[in-house]
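Q: What structure does this chain adopt?
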Amino acid sequence: MYKFIIIYFIVASLSGCAGNPTAVRGAELANKDLLKERSPYRVDVKVFEGGGAVTSTVWAGTKGISIMESADNTLKSDVWKFFEKQCGLHKSDLREVRVVQHKHPFYYEVWVFNDKESKRDDETTGISLILNFSPSGGTDINLVGSCHP
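A:
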């Protein structure tokens, strides 16, 4: 997932100005690949009127209500066990949920946690929660992203 972000920054640097169409298109392509990978990140480009731009990585999706709000207790418990086992993240650490896609039977959210172990300036970790409800019953649960980036 980081390879797409790195490729984008190389394209932006080689094109001379992150505000030109090549760099903006590079960000669009990187974001398309990040979406396919179900990454918790996206590349954001802010272009200034007088020229130039600033690029950054942002959490994917928009702040919203998790599908877990309406889930049964068994699924809620299973999801929290995934976060605790894989990353040591707990319910009390959850800062926000960002909805990327809610289209039954597939749900893609980014859960952002307060995380003292994170190397990010804002001490947060974002992990994509992917839920796929099977027509025959049961739910596939997957987490995508790095713990404590």
